[in-house]
User: Fold these one by one.
Assistant:
Number 1:
Amino acid sequence: MSDWIARMREAIPNGASVMCDWFAEQADNAVITTTDGRKFIDFAGGIGVLNTGHRHPKVTAAVAAQLDKFTHTAFQVVPYYSYIELAERINRLVPVSGKVKSQFFSSGAEAVENAVKIARSYTKRNGVIAFGGAFHGRTMMTLALTGKVLPYQADFGAMPAGVFHALYPSSTQHISVEDAIKSIKRIFKSDIAPQDVAAIILEPVQGEGGFNVAPPAFMQAVREICDEYGIVMIADEVQSGFARTGKLFAMEHYAVQPDIITMAKSLAGGFVLSGVSGKADIMDAPRKGGLGGTYAGNPLGVAAALAVLDVIEEEQLCARSQQLGERLTGFLKGLNAPEITEIRGLGSMIAVEFGDDEQPNAAFAAKVQQAAMAQNLLLLTCGAHGNVIRFLYPLTIEDDTFERALAILAESFTQARA
Ligand code: PLP
């Protein structure tokens, strides 16, 4: 295996940082088997892609069936029924009222890029307001929207213009709802007139930023600002979507609705697909041919997504998400760990923070992660300082595997203190 690590270092550049020093051979539901036969419980889910688990039999069967028909035509050249079926289904499911339309792309970043293009085209305005701690992707526009300089933006030169960052509420960063709203109004005073702002984009639960949950009063206030100035409200649900928070979309937890929703990751259960859904009049703004992409709405991803929606429904994964999240939260509280400052989240989008913005304890998060890794449990960190551990296990995880992971987690906390 060390030979492969040497080959990886030789063949792949520095910018592609890799977390594990082992390699995947096989993966089933919540377990990844390594090339040397170890079995890891996967609490990373390919960064939130596997709410329906690795290789869900219904998802792989749907993709296999599609493989026997055709794998690519470019939807904008030769269309296929399944894309339309998926759009119709998603249109019915997204928490956006009135007539809704959807278009599919490949990556989450591509979905966000297109959401911004749609909002600009609709409003004929340029500015976009995003939030500190946000993560929207690694393409130039989404990088500009991302509210974390290291390691994402640094060294990559000037970002696209017209993007401004407001504060996102967070108790451990000592940012109240009032502070956050004031920061938007400050942007209107010092950076850009609200009449020049095309969109405000926010994650209802910040993913990379540390699973900070938008308080309802904040969401309400953002909606009101958007309504007052004719700004398009975009909810980026790339990480929070598809039952992760106990609802199909995290925005269903709120009394207000966005105009546009971006989605990707668990939409297609391990296959490549993203989407943008929104109010039909907004979605229809770009001229014919203004949106698209060679692989956008690839038939394999679309087949997977239709199966994912069936699985979420049939296996009641929203309820399962809620149940697992409650078990995890109770377990974390029961650890009574003095290092924990906050346990937060919605449904199964749960994270635990060590220290706070002033005294982040990233070292403890890293030690827990390493101790878990040594015991075959895969965990991810996140947050402004890397001092948060987030849990992104498949919602299809078996009870005994989940309990085994919690036992490893408890032991990892003990070892992290040694
Ligand atoms: N938006 C959010 C909220 C995300 O969490 C991510 C990825 O982590 C993205 C956008 C970018 O998605 P992708 O990596 O598929 O481009």
Note: The first strand starts at residue 24 and ends at 28.
Number 2:
Amino acid sequence: MKNIKDFSLDELKEEMKALQEKPFRAEQIFQWLYQEKVKNFDEMTNLSLELREKLKQNYTMCNYNIIKKQESKDGTKKYLFDVLDGNAIETVLMEYHHGYSICISSQIGCKMGCKFCASTGIQFVRNLTAGEIVEQIIAVEQDSNIIVSNVVFMGIGEPLDNYDNVVKAIRLINHPKCLNIGARHISVSTSGLVPKIYKLAEENIQCTLSISLHATNNKKRSSMMPVNDSYPIEELLQACKDYIEKTNRRISFEYALAKDNNDNLEDAKELVKLLKGMLCHVNLIPINKIEHGMYTKSSNENIMKFRDYLNNHGIVATIRRELGSDIEAACGQLRRQNL
Ligand code: SAH
């Protein structure tokens, strides 16, 4: 059966026509799904019984089961969801002074093989559909009784490796009749799939692009991220420049600092050279240690020196607050889990 949350509003109108129903029923269904957040078709009380029956026969609603929920001492919550096919994904809810941010997964497993990330090393299973991506937000909002204001595609998976579903999910999240979260409050993070960055620049979506850069030369970056062998730094930065030119949006570069690997002042100098003049921001992440990982966190002192060097040389840099590391909910700590 089809997941009713996989449809855009226009597509759902077509579905209604195929069921010999009026297209405006799609708008009513959207209202129930995304504003009222109901869990079954019977609650859609302004639809006829007959239509509710038809919906039940033709579609599922993709209500995730919560397998496990952990809460960090800083209030961050990590959810393990049963995605209804024997697989499970993780989603993280964080509270900031400006509201709630949710970190969502885009794939079950990941193919990218980054050496420092726990989402690697487990087999890739499949892409999530657009509806399955969006469902993470709905399920967390329902369970925590909150409204999410920021969405980051930084959970399990490489969003641009699941391009069509992710773009569709962004449009749903953004749509006024769906979750109505501003595009500027949606960030997509990529390990650097260059052709997809060019493609995303053409979509006319005002979302924020984050690039997992992590190193300033190809040798080091390739040793951390195999994707760099296919798309080296020069090509990646060229794609970023094109993205900025086309969208007028500032790019965010993520740089996870690992002790004695990429955290000394020489690296900071090279980073300044690479990014000088670009409309960008650098997000420094104290690297989180993962099981069997070969990297350890830089000292606080090095992290601050690194940040100060960038800021003093014209590159805006901030240190990402570490949330949820006590429950393995921090960057790079999410894994695919079996039921
Ligand atoms: N696949 C996408 C999104 C998922 S990762 C990407 O690579 O961008 C989200 C961010 O966490 C990325 O910047 C990633 O490089 C970073 N990350 C991964 N493992 C980490 C770790 N152990 N410590 C800190 N950050 C990590």
Note: Residues 130-144 form the longest helix (15 residues).
